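To: structure subgroup
Subject: Chain for Friday's discussion

All,

I'm putting the inputs and outputs inline so they're searchable in the archive.
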Amino acid sequence: MFPGTEEGPMDDSAKHGGRVRTFPHERGNWATHVYVPYEAREEFLDLLDALLCHAQTYVPRLVRMEAFHLSLSQSVVLRHHWILPFVQSLKDRVASFQRFCFTADRVKIYTNQEKTRTFVGLEVTSGHAHFLDLVAEVDRVMEEFDLSTFYQPRSLKPRCHHGQFLDPSFHISLAWCVGDACLQMEGPCLQELQGIVDEFEDSEMLLRAYAEQIRCKSGNKFFSMPLK
């Protein structure tokens, strides 16, 4: 299942648009992230294109995300030999959870804690309690392995809260750029992007989805845990 070495993925910033790591790469360390995947339909991508085209008039360096998800953890570091026990503990914790419906239709601007990246996202406006329940179980797994729980420093958070850690803002990141672009995007830009969402054909149905599985990515390995 795994290579015979504990060497993690090589760090090459040229391959990910110059993004700055929030922790250094070390031999045998595997960046690990737990999330709910979001399968984008063609109509969703059409909406995303409209949003990105408008947002780029304010911040031209914005680029579209390659894949979409809703985070249940921040990115943490696992030693290679911890990966399978970590995944098994995660499976045990979420085994009883049922799939659920959620809506993500509120545009928000986010930065990471270091303010080295800015994101345009769609925030969850219904189904929030289900995500909180999942995060509570994921956090227990993190604590078992002495790792950081969700929404502590290094979390992704709305910039408008000025560093205060409020309830998690579950969201689908749509686009990102290097650096802190919040000043350019808050205010008129944010209002105009929300208008595009609200006026988009069938947006109410389009932005309603089911959480059907939890996924854990560790290095270049993916583990899926279907919800009941």
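Points worth raising on Friday:
The radius of gyration is 18 Å.
The longest strand covers residues 100-111.

D.
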